[in-house]
Design a protein that fits this description.
The protein is 72% helix and 2% strand. By secondary structure, the protein is mostly helical. It has 3 domains: 2-41; 49-259, no CATH class; 262-306, Zinc/RING finger domain, C3HC4 (zinc finger) (Herpes Virus-1). The model is unreliable at 1-14 (pLDDT under 50). Bound molecules: zinc ion (ZN) (2 copies). The site of one zinc ion has 7 residues, from loops. It holds the Pfam family zf-RING_2.
């Protein structure tokens, strides 16, 4: 049998091919096409509709946590009540997320501003401040409304701690803020790739937490099998794909590109005796591109995110000799 398939004469081997081969080939082709389409739709959902994607994960996680970490035991709770409680928890956390987002916006705006505050920018600040107060008022109304409806918002500390940590790891605004905070600490080991390492770590935490609560719910049968499978899809499968395609693959390319730009010594910076061509400021720390141009590590990283060419001479940094 084996000799038929290892025969070098291709015409002869074709004659020996079993008749059922073409339908299987066709089936595999359809399957591949279908998988590609599904993958494409999933990527659009994860990237373009990130809010819906993170909300789905959070809703699954919060609902699965409720019977184990909440104050009341599962049998006391009706299913819809668990959903409403999960949604209201997400809403309250979201208001906090919005608050952090706005504060970050104001802080960034005030850092960027070099001229004195104008009347217009003062009005913008005032508007943002009013909006934050409005969001907190919304939260208070929501809590009061839920109380009226008989849904006391009295989660225990453990539930709040676990769900809030999960929320932090999956919400868009925190996925952007935490890398910025770590970036400010200037940890050399992270090689200016905090914007990828930190979300990778946060997603890893979310996947482990999601898998653990899913598996535990399956063992103790605290949720229906279909809901557990749906949660597994959102919290583990989709998130793993998100991590792989949107962080891990980019990290590998950026690490390779960035590693070809050596850290400049003090003498090299002195010899260069020029400002960073990207931000036009003097340099105390710098990286040298293979084309011998010096830039701030942070400025270079921002440029390499958009293009793999040297910002000054357009030499392609990614290609290695
Ligand atoms: Zn610079
Ligand atoms: Zn160059």
């Amino acid at each position: 049998m084996a000799s038929v398939y290892t025969n070098n004469n291709s015409e002869e081997s074709i004659n020996y091919e079993p008749r059922w081969y073409p339908p299987i080939g066709f089936f595999l082709f359809i399957k591949r096409e279908l998988m590609e389409k599904i993958h494409y739709i999933e990527q659009i959902f994860v990237i373009k509709y990130f809010t819906a994607y993170s909300f789905s994960c959070q809703l699954c996680f919060f609902t699965l946590c409720r019977p184990h970490l909440g104050n009341q035991y599962v049998e006391d709770l009706r299913k819809y009540k668990m959903f409403v409680e999960s949604i209201s928890s997400i809403l309250l956390y979201s208001i906090l997320g919005y608050f952090v987002f706005k504060v970050r916006d104001i802080w960034r705006g005030s850092r960027r501003r070099t001229v004195a505050m104008t009347a217009r920018s003062f009005i913008n600040h005032l508007k943002a401040f009013c909006k934050i107060i409005l969001e907190w008022a919304k939260a208070a109304i929501l809590v009061l409304y839920l109380r009226e409806e008989g849904l006391e918002f009295e989660q225990n500390l453990l539930y709040c701690l676990v769900t809030f940590t999960y929320f932090l790891c999956t919400e868009n605004v925190f996925l952007k803020i935490f890398p910025e905070i770590i970036e400010a600490l200037q940890i050399d080991k992270l090689d200016n790739l905090e914007h990828l390492y930190v979300p990778l770590f946060m997603n890893f935490l979310a996947i482990v937490a999601g898998f653990t609560i899913d598996f535990y719910s399956f063992i103790v049968k605290s949720a229906s099998t279909s809901f557990i499978l749906l949660s597994l899809y959102f919290m583990v499968y989709l998130r793993l794909k998100d991590v792989y395609y949107n962080y891990w693959e980019i990290l590998l390319v950026e690490r390779e590109t960035y590693s070809s730009c050596q850290v400049a010594s003090e003498k090299q910076i002195e010899d260069w005796d020029d400002i960073c061509a990207i931000c036009l400021n003097r340099m105390s720390k710098a990286r040298i591109t293979p084309c011998n141009h010096l830039f701030h590590p942070h400025c270079l990283k921002l440029c390499l995110r958009r293009s793999f060419n040297c910002p000054l001479c357009k030499y392609c940094i990614l290609i290695k000799e």
